[in-house]
Amino acid sequence: MSDARNDHMSDDRGEGFPDVRAEYGPESTRTPEKSTSVEPAARPASSKVPAWMRSKLANDAAHKYDKYGGRRAHEPASAHVQDTKDPYAKYAGVSESTAAPDPYAKYGAKPRLLAVSRVIRRDPEPEKPRRNYRPKPSKEPDEFVAEVAAYTSVPSLKGQGNKFDYKTFQSNISHKENKDINSIVRQHYNQRTHQSRLQGSRTRSPIYKLRNFNNAIKYILLGNWVKRRAPNTPLVLLDLCCGKGGDLNKCEFVNVDQYIGIDISEASIREAFSRYSQNKARFIPQNIQARRDRDSKRYNFEACFATGDLFTYTIPEILEKNFSGIVDALFPVDTVSMQFSFHYAWETEEKVRTMLTNVTRSLRPGGTFIGTIPSSDFIRSKIVKKEFNEERAFGNSLYRARFEQQPPEDGHFLSPYGNRYDYFLKDAVDDVPEYVVPFETLRLLCEDYGLILKYRQNFPDIFNLEIPNYFSRLNKNLIEGMKRADGKYGVEGDEKEAVAFYIGFVFEKVGN
After folding, report:
1. Which residues neighbour 323 within 8 Å (Cβ) at sequence distance 6 or greater?
2. For a pLDDT cut of 70, what percent of the chain falls above it?
3. What does pTM read for this prediction?
4. The MRNA cap 0 methyltransferase domain covers which part of the protein (predicted)?
5. DSSP character for 27?
6. Quick one: pLDDT band at residue 230, thresholds 50, 70, 90?
7. β-strand 429-435 against 451-458: which pairing, if any?
8. Which is it for strands 363-374 and 333-339: parallel, antiparallel or unpaired?
9. Which structural domain, as residue segments, surrounds residue 57?
10. How far apart are CA 262 and CA 271, in angstroms?
11. What's the CA gap between 84 and 76, in Å, rounded?
């Protein structure tokens, strides 16, 4: 889903993809040999591909979809291919002898739906938005056009003094009770993206310190657990539910060479691409060793962005439509990052398994899956202590979680899936449906998919244990943005409980 809460807690900058975009355009009929890019014709398309990718792109791509269970390019959409050598079959819970023709069939994926992805193409010089520019609404969902007026009517804040210092975010999703969670989340973060441009200085936000705190947590998690395979190999990071590109600065912090961002919100993806384009280094050496001298104020990595539903479709279904050859060229990746969004998948077992399949099949052996989710232990303690009101809600002045149904007294739900609550975080999340993530269930499921738990900690403990190692390494503005009234650093008051709601985790891919 939309970096779902990745952005309400982040203020970092965004990303894009090597100039293979010029070679692999968005039309499904394009091939590397027949590029119709608008790039200067004087340069052959192959010269735009980094040297470390050329050998891979030269290989026959006939089997590019095998490990994801997708169809091959030369076959009709209705065809299914039996692949008894799929090294990932054991993670899908199917033996080689009984493997279904399409390992994604049990998860409900549709092989023909490659068109679900949308991509933002890179222009030579991105055009700056006009003053009072109103973005064109997406063609989906249908309600989007009607909702634009609700958040583009915010007064212009520039030069208005204190009259419009800051406008706290509020969503306006009509007939929410009749929509599925995908539609609600997509519309919520489309609105969040557009309104954030008109709110004013983010330093005036009531959760400014909380946002900085959560950004520090993600710097720590990525800084400790993102590792490249070998010294002179490119470091590739796949950012699932990337939102507006809030973790782009963190990718530069850990020296990423290639970034891939996917999100369900088209508005968020456009914002992420814009952030990346505005801050990308003018020259990025193709030689990995030459990238050691990085421009500290720019993004020294290549990036690409696509819109897609990661809880329903496979990675190739989302990416290959617009980035032909990307799976061969860049996968498996070193790290999969998924921040403040996995909880949306826990509506059904199908969605959780589809996401975990995408994670494990995208990772190299030894690669890491890094994420942040609501703490099931924290939620259970609130239920057991009966710290909720007659509306089945708990929280404080900053956040609120309200259960759809009366939770069990012991805090243990009969099913690990579908345990819904509506979450509110001031100036960030406006009563969006989420689902409890029972961590022990997650751990056991991950083991089935070849992912072994390496680290788990709640946010306050991560900060207290690790911040001494990062205090001098993090951006000064980020550190100062966590300064408390007593002169110390961190969160205070109601912010403490709001951040204790979350945990960070790291799983490592084992086997093939």
Report:
1. 17, 20, 21, 24, 119, 304, 306
2. 58
3. 0.69
4. 205-510
5. S
6. confident
7. unpaired
8. parallel
9. 1-375+433-482+503-512
10. 12
11. 20
pLDDT computed for residue 333 by the predictor:
98
Reply yes or no on whether the pLDDT at 24 is more than 60.
Answer: no
Domain-located, residue 365: yes
Q: Is 144's pLDDT higher than 70?
A: no
Q: Report yes or no on 55 lying in a domain.
A: yes
**Domain containing 245 — which CATH number?**
3.40.50.150
Give the whole-angstrom CA distance, residue 141 versus residue 76.
Answer: 29
The residues with which 262 forms a beta bridge, in sequence order, are: 240, 306
- Please write the tens of the pLDDT for every residue from 330-348: 999 999 999 999 999 999 9
User: How far is the CA of 192 from the CAs of 1, 155, 428, in angstroms?
Assistant: 13, 16, 8
- Contact indicator for 309, 377 with CB cutoff of 8 Å: no
Q: Give Rg (Cα) of the chain.
A: 22
* Residue 441 within a domain: yes
Distance of alpha carbon 64 from alpha carbon 425, whole angstroms = 42
Give the CA count within 13 Å in the CB-facing half-sphere of 459: 30
Q: Which candidate, 67, 151, 52, 59, places its Cα nearest to that of 365?
A: 67
Residue 129 counted as domain residue: yes
Count of domains observed in the chain: 1
Q: Cβ distance 435 to 347 under 8 Å?
A: yes
Environment class of residue 228 by beta-carbon count within 10 Å: exposed (0-12), middle (13-18) or buried (19+)?
middle
| Separation between Cα atoms, residue 221 and residue 457, nearest integer Å | 10
Give 220's contacts (C-beta < 8 A, 6+ positions apart). Answer: 462, 463, 466, 467, 470
- Please, what is the average pLDDT of the chain? 73
- Among 9-18, 249-258, 428-437, 440-449, the range scoring the smallest mean pLDDT is 9-18
